[in-house]
């Protein structure tokens, strides 16, 4: 390089340093000066940022994976119930907040008829995380009722209690294999006393169960009246009235 060309090159380098622009990108980073032109750097920045945003195909793939996981879980639970058989068609069950009669069993879901006679579609995976109570397979069902008496009839309670227990033991629908029926004075207030009557009833349909409970209650009331006692009231008058 001759002397004139070298002089021109030095003048150009000097002019670049004075203007604050360094052509080499590595030297620009070391010097701490902002890159130039800024539009190019912004383009690189937003390009790297947008490359991290998942595409529609990725989002659809993730959603499909979650849906497949739920379906697979329901299928596994359905297969497990086919082998373990915690309930069958027609059984009355309770699992968490779900209660009713099983009317349909599928591989991924089970249909339960609730108390309002509406069909409820339940995913089978729910049964794997809930305690299942199968009321239809119970050999007996405990029933308890409370009967108020007037406080003046406290002396008649022992005779009434024995008579009610004898009535329950002679009832063919009362199950005696687990525990004997009971009747005792369970509560006393200023204006009334309370008898608690309980027993285990044999397995039966819901209509028959309600009819049996009604019959036991009516017979208990007849026994109370037969012994000259009167039914009381649990209503308490406010003080000062």
TrEMBL record:
Entry keywords, A to Z: Ion channel, Ion transport, Membrane, Transmembrane, Transmembrane helix, Transport
Protein name: Mechanosensitive ion channel protein 1, mitochondrial
Ranges of residues in domain Mechanosensitive ion channel MscS: 70-137
One GO term of the biological process aspect: monoatomic ion transmembrane transport
Cellular component, GO annotation: membrane
InterPro entries: LSM_dom_sf (IPR010920), MscS_beta-dom_sf (IPR023408), MscS_channel_2nd (IPR006685)
Pfam families: MS_channel_2nd
Transmembrane segment boundaries: none
Location(s), subcellular: Membrane
Organism, as annotated: Gossypium australe
């Amino acid at each position: 390089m001759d002397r004139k060309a070298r002089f021109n090159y030095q003048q150009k380098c000097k002019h670049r340093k004075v203007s604050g622009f360094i052509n080499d990108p590595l030297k620009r980073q070391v010097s701490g000066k902002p890159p130039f032109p800024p539009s190019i750097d912004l383009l690189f920045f937003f390009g790297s940022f947008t490359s991290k945003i998942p595409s529609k195909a990725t989002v659809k793939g993730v959603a499909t994976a979650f849906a497949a996981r739920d379906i697979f879980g329901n299928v596994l639970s359905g297969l497990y119930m086919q082998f373990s058989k915690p309930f069958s068609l027609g059984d009355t069950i309770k699992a968490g907040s779900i209660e009713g009669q099983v009317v349909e069993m599928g591989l991924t879901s089970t249909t339960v008829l609730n108390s309002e006679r509406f069909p409820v579609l339940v995913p089978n995976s729910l049964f794997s995380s809930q305690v299942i109570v199968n009321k239809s397979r119970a050999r007996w069902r405990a029933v308890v009722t409370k009967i108020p008496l007037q406080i003046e009839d406290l002396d008649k309670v022992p005779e009434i209690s024995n008579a009610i227990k004898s009535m329950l033991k002679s009832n063919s629908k009362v199950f005696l294999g687990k525990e004997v029926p009971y009747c005792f004075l369970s509560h006393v207030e200023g204006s009334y006393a309370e008898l608690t009557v309980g027993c285990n009833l044999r397995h039966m349909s819901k209509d028959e169960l309600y009819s049996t409970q009604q019959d036991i209650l009516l017979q208990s009331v007849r026994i109370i009246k037969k012994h000259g006692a009167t039914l009381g009231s649990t209503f308490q008058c406010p003080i000062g009235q």
